[in-house]
Amino acid sequence: MEKLIIDGGYPLNGDIEISGAKNAAVAILPAAIMAGKGSCVIDNIPDISDTKCIERIIESLGAKVNRNNNTVTIDSTCIDSWDANTEDVRKMRASYYLIGALLGRFKKARVEMPGGCSIGVRPIDQHIKGFEALGAKVKIEHGAVVAEAEKLVGTNIYFDVVSVGATINVMLAATFAEGKTILENPAKEPHIVDVANFLNSMGADIKGAGTDEIKINGVKELKGCNYSVIPDQIEAGTYMMAAAACGGKVNVNNVIPKHLESISAKLIEMGVKITENGDSITVESSRDLKGVNVKTLPYPGFPTDIQQPMTTLLSISKGRSIVNESIWESRYKHVDELKKMGANIKVENNLAIIEGIENLSGAKVVATDLRAGAAMVIAGMIAKGITEISSIEHIDRGYPHIEEKFNNLGAKIKRVKID
Ligand code: EPU
């Protein structure tokens, strides 16, 4: 086991390169198993434990997977199993994408119930609704989702809630359905568009991803392709929050500024200077910031995955801020940790009411989940004194080389082994 030890109080300055998007990569890797011919060569796969976990799962199904730095080559022609049942499957959320991918390709899938961050109830009823509408029979058996169909037939599917996972999963299965499928009320996150683009590169016929309606004309087979994953909107947003909180001037490079508009807008409202320049965003902050109200919403709204780092930033911003977490019911575990560092935050149901204080003070804290971990790293970097963060395996699930990247900007973070 490892922990991070942070000596806080240093501004951040310089350039940071953003890696490929975790939540696109963890869908694109399972989608690659739908190629019955040729290999997929996928670039810009972030070096994080979640992508490595998915790679092992795909291998356990019989695919050949080879990683060379950030490029992963997948030959799925020899997949001989539709049963995903390893410990890795149970560990991570995105393993649910194997249901759509296997059901599409083999008309049969058995996938152990997915795990993931503990941020509230995480139902998959909309995924199941979509599979059933396409003609599959779905049951939960001995802790696994079992889906089967004689054939999949395209149809209109209206999602009752906007769900990233359900939109992608049903899009995967519908790629191999006979005729046309229309997904209404889909999620529009950048990674939805990226997965659709990847499927189209393999030979799928998907239009409208990123809009209110996704139209999928079913195809009979997919083949390997070359593809590069988009930059990570959430990693970029986290570094923007960190630069704003620590003060200094940071160029956040290799980003798509459009994907970051809701984050940039809030930072500007707080008094941070944001400049866009091609595929780079410069964040300049004096640390003298004013509090704002934030409500998390599906894209293009403010992302829930940035709510936790944002709470840290607001804890040292002037005045009262109110955060409204509208996506997940239990995504405030980081607040108890921030309170150990002196933050003045009260949680009432899905609201966090924050009274800004001058500064945090270093303490021993826990990374209770992935984005909570990022929030604590930022807290440690701004706090007076030493902060120790344990359970950092959560952070390693989604942020490649986090201490190295922050140290390059002037932070003082050490990773140490513990018993
Ligand atoms: N929901 C349902 N029924 C469903 C599916 C979702 O009611 O069948 C509800 C959820 O309970 C939640 C809301 O719909 O209240 C949104 O859930 P969504 O399905 O969009 O979330 P997800 O696909 O499980 C992905 C990301 C999360 C991110 C959310 C929202 C992956 C692997 N995970 O989860 O990322 O918070 O979308 O943007 O893509 C993270 O990266 O830290 C993370 C948790």
UniProtKB/TrEMBL annotation:
Top-level EC class as recorded in UniProt: transferase
Residues reported in the UniProt entry to bind UDP-N-acetyl-alpha-D-glucosamine: R93, R122, P123, I124, D125, Q126, D305, I327
Signal peptide location: none
CDD domains listed in its UniProt record: UdpNAET
Residues that coordinate or bind phosphoenolpyruvate: K22, N23
Active site residues according to the UniProt entry: C117 (proton donor)
Catalysis performed (reactions): phosphoenolpyruvate + UDP-N-acetyl-alpha-D-glucosamine = UDP-N-acetyl-3-O-(1-carboxyvinyl)-alpha-D-glucosamine + phosphate
Family that this chain belongs to: Belongs to the EPSP synthase family. MurA subfamily.
Name of the protein: UDP-N-acetylglucosamine 1-carboxyvinyltransferase
Species: Clostridium ganghwense
